[in-house]
Amino acid sequence: MEILSSRTILRPRDYEAALEFYGGKLRLAIAREYPAGTVYFAGQSLIEIAAHGRGDADQTFQGALWLQVRDVYECEAELALVGVPIVREARQEPWGLHELWVADPDGVPIVLVQIPDDHPLRRDSRTPSTGRSNPSGK
């Protein structure tokens, strides 16, 4: 199977509240809009807020959105200023990432993550290939 792109689709109870949260408070840029939905840029992915397809059953999202940011502590201060409730304050986890937990109006967990410069996620894990020419000629 070849995956060409991906996005997370959320079908909130209150469409307008979700738009205010993702567009207004998190300030995600709009990738596109259509009559019953808005798609936001979220780094290398997309988050679509859909006003359609919810059905009568109360649906819950059993995962979490993981959004990488440059400075999680700055984000915490910024979000607190606009009234986003902080589920768990920003702190460094035992695995080295700095995380801040918030939730959208439907309670969807959002983990804002800062990856320190020395964390393994920032290192090139590829094995150096052999037989490559050295551009410096040495």
Tally of discrete structural domains: 1
CATH superfamily: 2,3-Dihydroxybiphenyl 1,2-Dioxygenase, domain 1
Model regions low in confidence, pLDDT < 50 over at least 5 residues: none
Q: How does CATH name the architecture? A: Roll
Strand order of the largest sheet: 1-4-3-2
Order of helices and strands: EHEEEEHEEE
The rounded distance between the terminal residues' Cα atoms is: 43 Å
The helix-and-strand class reads: alpha/beta
Q: What is the CA-atom radius of gyration, in angstroms? A: 19 Å
Number of strands: 8
Major beta sheet, specifics? 4 strands, mixed
Number of helices: 2
Provide the β-strand percentage band.
Answer: 25-35%
Name its key features:
138 residues, alpha/beta, 2,3-Dihydroxybiphenyl 1,2-Dioxygenase, domain 1, 4-stranded mixed β-sheet, 2 helices, 31% strand
